[in-house]
Amino acid sequence: MEIEAVPAQESLPIVKQKALIQQPLFIITLLLAIVSVAGVGFLYQKNGDLKKQSDAQLASLDDLSKKIEAYRADSSKLSNLQEKSDALSKVAFLVSEQHDIEGAVVTDDFTVDKVYLGVQDSGELNITIDINTQPQMALHYTGQGAFDLSDRELRAKSLAIINEVKDRYTSNATDQMPKWDDSSVYLTIKNYAIGDSTSGEFKLVGEK
Fewest CB within 10 A of the end CB: N or C in the chain? Predict the structure, then answer.
């Protein structure tokens, strides 16, 4: 009995597996993981820096707000101081004008003995002119603000001295000073009323 020879089978080549670290997919995954972790760390650090910057800006704004409030308070004080300074300047000017007018403003009939310049709520003047007579006019004065003249004559002579006072005041007053008010003029002699212009035009006492 013959025994057939069986041909020897060829042996299959043995494939060696690459180490995990050498596989491309693993390397890519690992790199992505590293980048992600680094990115998270960077963002965390950046967020911390932004928070510090935000806190610093808030502190700066708070400090600026306090400075603005302090400046407003100082501005208010300065404004009040300026108002007081302006008021004092007006008072000083009016006192100076009173002394300048008294005894210096005259007409052929009257001399200004005293003048009182006050300021109304409107900011305009309230004027009281107390006069005395020139020698020739003294003969016509009968006392207590009365003269032996016709109303027309006395009114004209009164307006003449009033206009002289007005011209002296307006020539010296600046725009910041109280304005002359023609409807707030009172004329007296030795403190007795002669007339006033409160009606819009000068009228003698007793005139309607």
Answer: N
